[in-house]
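Following up on my earlier message about cobalt (II) ion. Here are the inputs again, as you asked, copied directly from the submission form:
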Amino acid sequence: MAILDILTLPDPKLKTKAQRVTDFDGSLAQLTEDMLETMYAAPGIGLAATQVDVHQKVVVMDVSEDSDTPMVFINPEIIEATGSQTYEEGCLSVPGIYAKVKRAEQLVMKYQDIAGEWHELSADGLLAVCIQHELDHLQGIVFLDHLSTLKRKMAMKKLLA
Ligand code: QAP
Ligand code: CO
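Thanks, got it. Here's what our run produced:
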């Protein structure tokens, strides 16, 4: 187990698009364990591999109240999204900055587990927000990219102050 370094804005590496995972081996299991340890230590509720400078489609999260429900999603894809909700988001890569973001309310996601088996998951509420936030990272998108230019500039100014 190891705690990994988390990239923070304005690091341009956060804009990297992740590649599909093709090897379901021990190093993938090791990466997900290290990402979970890093997320819990922060503490945070979600972490994408992009944030630890690994550009593969891997995300971990735990939105449970007692932080006892780790989830690992490999090659995740949202296949259905409906409704809308607004949630005040933060990000381990944008420390100290919080802003409201509008996203889908319900979604269905397909993903592989660390053995390569495919699954489908229906989500709503905070879990749906977290999934959309983390899948954005895999495309090089951070939550500030969803804000107006003015709000994004104000957030960047505060971050760099
Ligand atoms: C993404 O965010 C998320 O600024 C995960 O100083 C956020 O774990 C999903 C954190 C909201 C759904 C709703 C942020 C920790 C953690 C900070 C996080 C900070 C310390 C953020
Ligand atoms: Co984030």
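One observation from looking it over: Residues 12-160 form a domain with the Peptide Deformylase fold (CATH 3.90.45.10). Hope that helps, and feel free to reply on this thread.
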